[in-house]
Write the structure tokens for this entry.
Amino acid sequence: QKEVEQNSGPLSVPEGAIASLNCTYSDRGSQSFFWYRQYSGKSPELIMSIYSNGDKEDGRFTAQLNKASQYVSLLIRDSQPSDSATYLCAVTSPGFQKLVFGTGTRLLVSP
Amino acid sequence: GAVVSQHPSRVICKSGTSVKIECRSLDFQATTMFWYRQFPKQSLMLMATSNEGSKATYEQGVEKDKFLINHASLTLSTLTVTSAHPEDSSFYICSASYSDSNQPQHFGDGTRLSIL
């Protein structure tokens, strides 16, 4: 079982719709959770971080964490073609700075 | 804040050449820096964790004599690919974080290495 799992996609949504990206993790002791966006040929860019159960909103982005279900998601409201990228879910465990990445979900937003 | 600069952005060189890549944290002190490699259409693969003033910790399967890492200060880590060969061609990315493990890693822009 992979430590961090994501559906590779592509996830296709029309412009203006809500894109929902999901991630599950296997280490119940995981403490910190991050979403990164990576455009083709570029390095990852931090979108959101979340540390406690519930929702965290930042502009059009909402991260949701459910530690009991070992599940973290990212919602993108009013999706734009410029949101088309690969979204990487990453997790750390207590005392460890090493990020464990999922393989990423490719999002395609069509005009 | 939390800007990480990586240089050079692209290198093309002949087989057998050694290539040095620099990673700098511009506006914060990074006790830990990380080096990743990414092949086309694949996810990031952690190569090593670099701690200021101590030896780097390499991931399984990564040759420490081939990928030399130096973290001489709290703002600079370097990766040297020694005697590079075509199979070393890849996208190399560094990241840096504060000492707190809860803090996110911030990535440099990456270095695209092409060995002819």
Notes: The interface with chain A takes residues 6, 32, 34, 42-44, 46, 49, 91, 93, 95, 97, 101-102, 104-110, 112 of chain B (CB under 8 Å). Chain B has a mean pLDDT of 91.
